[in-house]
Amino acid sequence: MSIHDLRIALFQPDIAGNTGTILRLAACLGLAVDIVEPAGFDISDRNLKRAGMDYIASVALTRHVNWERFESFRQTEGRRLVLASTKAALPYTQFVFQAGDILLFGRESAGVPDHVHSATPHRIIVPMIEGQRSLNVAMSVAMIAGEALRQVTL
User: Fold this and answer.
1) Helices of type H across 78-136
2) pTM of the full predicted structure?
3) Cβ(106)–Cβ(11) below 8 Å
4) pLDDT at residue 45 above 60?
5) Secondary structure of residue 77 in the 3-state scheme
6) Strand ranges (DSSP E) for 12-141?
7) Domain ranges of the chain
8) For residues 51 and 152, which has the higher predicted lDDT (pLDDT)?
9) 3 state DSSP class of 42
10) How close are the terminal C-alpha atoms of the chain, in Å?
């Protein structure tokens, strides 16, 4: 059950364990999760279940067969999309989150394709020291979702 109006969206996630960890986080924080398929694993994967443990049953999870269906859902709901990207310039701590935002995270192996990146006007980054590629996606989700919740629940 989601208690906050924020949502987490995972674009074609590659790693079942990361997705399970994010589902567990969402269950504990009361956030809904959208998975934009195809995923790089079977959604019933045992690694997903192990990482999410018994929390998965508590998550408001919506699966979208592709990007176009997800975008249709988002637009119908009137929600703003916020992309976490290593190509962004604005630190997530300087972004002003709003209730109803969907926090979008790309594939572990490749992020999001150019057409998704360019279709998302709000892009944020987790600043890191020079020379490092990226954080684990579950860590990024936790950091950004925590900041978004802090802002919208003040």
Assistant:
1) 114-118
2) 0.92
3) yes
4) no
5) helix
6) 32-36, 61-64, 81-84, 90-91, 102-105, 122-125
7) 7-152
8) 152
9) coil
10) 21
